[in-house]
Amino acid sequence: MKSDCVNAYFFGSMGSGRVSSVFGVMFFGWESSMKKLKVLIADDDRPAHELYNHCLLGELYEKHMVDNGEEAVKAYETWQPDVIILDIMMPVMSGYQALKEIRRTEKENAKPPTPILMVTALGSKSDIVDCMKQGIQGYIVKPFRPDDLCEKVELGYKKLNPSG
């Protein structure tokens, strides 16, 4: 049964997959039974929250936003997201510290890794390399284009969930 929601697919060298961006993609019917991706977003920049809401359409994504790494770790444990987006520089607990804590929890509980994307305004190679050593699935440099965010979220998810 089709719903009024839309699903966008992109085609190219990376294969096909759903993307919520409306930038240069074709729209097809959305199956009402298709599961929304649960995306946990940790960013202390309030205007960025609006951008995340605009980019990650509610028809495709269920979003939970928090303001720091400590809240991200708590939300990870209680909400069980499909994908996590962590800003590197946040108060209370940095995104890097939250990343390490989430990976430690997964290892201790023999859970499969959750796809994690890091967001940074710095674009420092050493920051990204440190995060890659912790097993991130990608990173986004601020400011980012909305379609880049959607693509990174989908590709990050597919890296650990190829059949999803």
Helix and strand run: EEEEHEHEHEHEH
| Gyration radius from CA atoms, angstroms | 15 Å
Overall pLDDT confidence: 79
Write the CATH homologous superfamily. Answer: Response regulator
Low-confidence stretches: 1-32
CATH class: Alpha Beta
Across the major sheet, the strand order is: 5-4-6-7-8
The best one-word shape is globular
Distance between the termini: 20 Å
Number of helices: 5
Strand content: 25-35%
Structural class: alpha/beta
Question: Based on the structure given, which CATH architecture is correct?
Answer: 3-Layer(aba) Sandwich
Amount of helix: 25-40%
CATH T-level topology: Rossmann fold
Number of domains: 1
Number-wise, the strands total: 8
Described by strand count, sense and barrel closure, the largest sheet is: 5 strands, parallel
Account of the protein in words:
With 164 residues, this protein is of the alpha/beta class. The protein has one domain: 3-Layer(aba) Sandwich (Rossmann fold), CATH 3.40.50. The chain is 36% helix and 27% strand. The protein contains five helices and eight strands; from the N terminus they run E-E-E-E-H-E-H-E-H-E-H-E-H. The protein has helices at residues 46-55, 69-79, 95-108, 125-133, 146-160, and strands spanning 2-10, 17-19, 26-31, 37-42, 61-66, 83-87, 116-120, 138-141. The strands form two sheets. The protein has a five-stranded parallel beta sheet with strand order 5-4-6-7-8, sandwiched between helices. It has a three-stranded antiparallel beta sheet with strand order 2-1-3. Helix 3 links the parallel strand 6 (83-87) and strand 7. The longest helix has 15 residues, at 146-160. 32% of the residues are buried.
